[in-house]
Amino acid sequence: MHKAEVRDRIIHAAIESFSQAGFDRTKMDDIARRIGLSKGTLYLYFKSKEDLFIAISEHYINQLREPLDAEAPTREDLVADAEQFYETFRKIGRPGDDRVIFEMLVESTRNPRLKKAMHEHRLRVHGVIVSYLQRQVERGFFRSDIDIDSLAWAFMSAWVGLTIYKLCGVSEPTVKKAWASMMRAAYAGMG
Amino acid sequence: MHKAEVRDRIIHAAIESFSQAGFDRTKMDDIARRIGLSKGTLYLYFKSKEDLFIAISEHYINQLREPLDAEAPTREDLVADAEQFYETFRKIGRPGDDRVIFEMLVESTRNPRLKKAMHEHRLRVHGVIVSYLQRQVERGFFRSDIDIDSLAWAFMSAWVGLTIYKLCGVSEPTVKKAWASMMRAAYAGMG
Amino acid sequence: MHKAEVRDRIIHAAIESFSQAGFDRTKMDDIARRIGLSKGTLYLYFKSKEDLFIAISEHYINQLREPLDAEAPTREDLVADAEQFYETFRKIGRPGDDRVIFEMLVESTRNPRLKKAMHEHRLRVHGVIVSYLQRQVERGFFRSDIDIDSLAWAFMSAWVGLTIYKLCGVSEPTVKKAWASMMRAAYAGMG
Amino acid sequence: MHKAEVRDRIIHAAIESFSQAGFDRTKMDDIARRIGLSKGTLYLYFKSKEDLFIAISEHYINQLREPLDAEAPTREDLVADAEQFYETFRKIGRPGDDRVIFEMLVESTRNPRLKKAMHEHRLRVHGVIVSYLQRQVERGFFRSDIDIDSLAWAFMSAWVGLTIYKLCGVSEPTVKKAWASMMRAAYAGMG
DNA sequence: CATGAATGAGTCTTCATTCAT
DNA sequence: AATGAATGAAGACTCATTCAT
């Protein structure tokens, strides 16, 4: 079990490094020193820098979060929920997570292995949102002629975009309000 | 004039390289070879690799595109316009542009000079969208109680998110339909 | 006794490794894994990788093989014996031995300790061959004006050369026939 | 042409290094410093350490030396020639050459590309010796029932063996006399 | 005795940058 | 203006060796 613990510490140090410097500018030495280990030790746990990064990515990708399960009792609550959505999401991840996920996004545009994994993850998330919207249609909260599939992609995109904006320095409240307004408008238009 | 032309060719070669490989993995040599110049020559035009990248970024940042100027005659046309928006945008940029802009986004999270420039650009785009929405409110096409500022951010985010999804392999039609659905819903909700 | 047995198993695993990969590319880890021991354990038996190699070398060097003791009854038998020589030698060593001995040869050109040991071994073998040839001269099988000393070196060289050729992919029958032809010609010339 | 000259200097520095330390223990840095260049420069001329080594090997392999062309007027001269053979050979190569060729031999037992090249070279040398012996048979200097093919291999082996013995510290005169005695005996036996 | 986790010096290789021509 | 040879700092990765358990 000790080994698993060290592995874990490496992963967290790596997340920090990758978050701060990005994949290419992160040095194995830097990761090692963050936890008082030597460079060589990292290679006992991960075959290469890329492997370490992929391990982290898979760690995230496998955490499928489903914050959309609860049913809002009324249509108004539904809107309120959607607005809360951002807050909910934000609280789940450790600080810094967004940044690594961004790195994963960047890397995935070049690394086929990562690209595939992230695409599958995206499809799973999409599925969750689709079935959520489906339920609301069935409950009569949304019109039945909406394009659920496309809207799910749109919501996901907006989420990704806002996350990136935040990384680029757009303030948290701005981002949160943007999400809420969008949700309010869209839900109104869908109802 | 000759000098400006060479500079231009370098910039375009660099855009291609940065698009394909990202900033860190782009080699000066690669850029040079694309236009049959020697590595050394690049340094006559740009002080460093970073400088070249910043020059490209500024080149993009200064291209403020305002495709929202035309006034739709009816509310229905407005919605149709918004749906066309994606198509419009897509046609403006050369293929590959998205990718460099993504690189710029990545870099801007670390490079203060770039961060500032991109933030200013973002504010300008935001301003354009805000005044566009404003006009629609004034024309009575949108309700006057909407949070124009936040919605502008939301639209921009959705745009950025979709662009990134496209880079990650989400198909063009999917992305386009997502944008259209979102716009239709939001405009309906705002009306 | 148990200790001697483990030591022996290490030596044999090492011989295999050195044979396959050569001294420099053999990893202590590889040797250890071949016999299900841990790397650390090797160091309880041998101070260093070099020490282990030297131990192996000495193991071989001390095996002075004297297949030249039997007296051929006639001159014709002598020639036949010489032709069989190759076969005889070949059977004595385990397969793979040639390869380690080649490694020893290589190393001995750099490692003084090994160089000395191998030189002494060489002199001993030379001595055996010299006295063998001497006996044949005394029996009147070879002319008395031959340069026994030099011929002994020549035979040894030819042997070494053929062994190396075999390692380099020259076929066993080719090598064997080469030895036989050489011996037949030389013995004829010496008779 | 300047480039070819630098390339040549690198090759010679490399030959020295490989001769002294062997492939694995030769450091690119060491090669570079021998000729006052930087490590990086080597990589402008050779893709990798292995490539540099292969280049050297091919350089040697392509030098097919044919010192057997001259016809001896008498049978006695033939023997004398053969005895001189060693001397002749020795003079052709630069000092140190034997050592690299030995390294090539070692490497060729593992590197398929090198193995093939050296085998082809070996076959060419073999061909030269075979036709030399053939000529002597035709001239009536050697008996026609000798196994020319096998004898050619035997001579080559003896040569290789002596070369290696020399590298291992056997003295030059010893080696030379060994060759002469062997040749005298074999030629006598073949005549 | 045995282990195997940890080490860190050592090496190859890359590539942005410089500069003499 | 252009070249391209040369540089050397930087960084990933390896592996013999050590040592606490």
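qc> Chains C and A do not touch (no CB pair under 8 Å).
qc> done
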